Amino acid sequence: MCIKGFPLSKWQRSEGKGLIPMDSAEVLGQIPIFASLGNEDRRSLARQIDRRSFQKGTLLFRRGEAGDALYIIIRGQIRIFASTRQGNEITLALLGVGEFFGEMALLDGQPRSANAETTEDTELHILQRDNFFSFLMHKESALRAILYALSRRLRRTDNLLTEACFLQISHRLARKLVELSQTVEAATGSPASYEIFTTQREMAGLIGATRESVNKELKILRRKGLVQTSRSRITVRDLGRLKRRIR
Ligand code: CMP
Question: pTM higher than 0.90 for the full model?
Answer without folding.
Answer: no
